[in-house]
Specification:
Length: 382
């Protein structure tokens, strides 16, 4: 990848890089001195807010000439220690690669706050990555979105007008749009954010075959355990009445109104059947389920609820689901009576009979569960 054209060019390479490119270190680990980001490239997006490349952030003459006092780094390797230790600089480092599946969303609030605090104090802040094209521009766009209450496209156009070669990768663009939908902050209850985190966890499971500690939070606590403010709407095992999930655990999806086809995912899809043993397209159970949910005053309009498919009940991963942190896919059994309730897969898509797909997929079969409006969740023996 070639470095973009420079707004400001200095013949001096990144500080500390001369003569060290490709040179092995005694520690055997790479440091910032191993890389040369090319000539200085820096642009002022708003008063006091600069967007640039690695060389701009490591070239002391550039830092001083633009009166930079704060540097935000989004890169795979931190700045050289002599830059970080400079007394007049306040620095922040976000370790992230320029890949669409990287989770930049989790860093956006902190980045926006860092930029905002610097500008509020009338200081100049430089936001940079390696070339100043994708990672750093994403952080600046997030700031501009929140500062001016803009959607992604408007903020992107504003930043691009100042630095013509900015271009967040496709994954970052999707995350910036999600950042906007959540009100420029992380909303853990927002379904699209839940799915974003689950997809990232699924990628980790695909690689490591085990759920990393950093993603354990995507597995929700067991709702059957007594809590101070239990949710009133719960789904229970139809056989033993053990509480399995709450309404907030459900990942809604709209019916596509198309015939069911094989998912090709390796997941076993079971549907309610009629008394004659044939598959029911619109079983009475699902009609009753949808009707009872509509009557529960869950904050959604009746027209919204009628669009939600109930052929399969997709839910978040929950702590009672046996060995889901250690297996990429498998079956779900009731932790009390051991009845099979559904299936899960971190890595393969599950197609609902309505035609919608979900990845990762954790689903309960509607005929195996019942909806209950309980006053409180009572702790049971598992």
């Amino acid at each position: 990848m070639e470095a973009p054209p420079s707004a400001v060019v200095a013949p001096v390479p990144a500080a500390g890089s001369a003569g060290s490119r490709g040179k092995p270190h005694d520690t055997g680990t790479l440091t910032r001195e191993d890389f040369d980001g090319g000539p200085v490239s820096i642009d002022e997006v708003e008063t006091g807010l600069f967007l640039g490349n690695l060389t701009a952030a490591t070239h002391m003459e550039t830092i001083k000439s633009f009166k930079i006092t704060h540097i935000l780094t989004l890169d795979s390797v931190p700045l050289p220690q002599h830059i970080v230790d400079t007394t007049f600089l306040t620095t922040k480092y976000v370790q992230i690669a320029d890949m669409p599946r990287e989770d930049i969303l989790q860093h956006l609030e902190a980045c926006v706050e860092f930029i905002g605090n610097a500008l509020d104090q009338q200081h100049n802040v430089l936001v940079h990555c390696y070339f100043g094209v994708s990672r750093s521009s994403s952080a600046v766009i997030a700031y501009v979105m929140k500062r001016h209450n803009l959607d992604y496209q408007a903020a992107f156009d504003m930043v691009k007008a100042k630095r013509r070669f900015v271009q967040p990768n496709g994954g970052f663009v999707a995350q910036l749009k999600l950042f906007r939908r959540m009100g420029y902050k992380i909303d853990p209850s927002y379904q699209r954010y839940k799915m974003h985190r689950l997809r990232l966890a699924g990628e980790q499971m695909r690689k490591a075959k085990i759920l990393p500690q950093s993603f354990h939070s995507v597995v929700r606590p067991d709702p059957d355990i007594t809590r101070e403010n239990p949710e009133p709407i719960v789904f229970r095992c139809r056989r033993c009445r053990r509480v399995l999930a709450t309404k907030s655990h459900v990942l809604e999806h709209r019916s596509r109104n198309v015939p069911a086809t094989g998912s090709g995912s390796g997941l076993e899809v079971e549907l309610p059947t009629t008394t004659t043993g044939t598959t029911a397209n619109e079983p009475r159970l699902l009609e009753q389920l949808a009707e009872r949910i509509r009557k529960s005053s869950l904050g959604s309009s009746p027209s919204h609820e009628t669009n939600q498919c109930r052929s399969l009940l997709f839910v978040e991963p929950i702590a009672w689901m046996h060995r889901i942190m250690l297996n990429t896919q498998g079956r779900l059994y009731c932790p009390k009576c051991e009845q099979k309730l559904g299936n899960f897969s971190w890595v393969n898509a599950c197609q609902c009979p309505c035609g919608e797909t979900m990845t990762p997929a954790f689903y309960l079969i509607p005929s195996k569960v019942e909806l209950s409006k309980a006053v409180q969740n009572v702790q049971t023996t598992v």
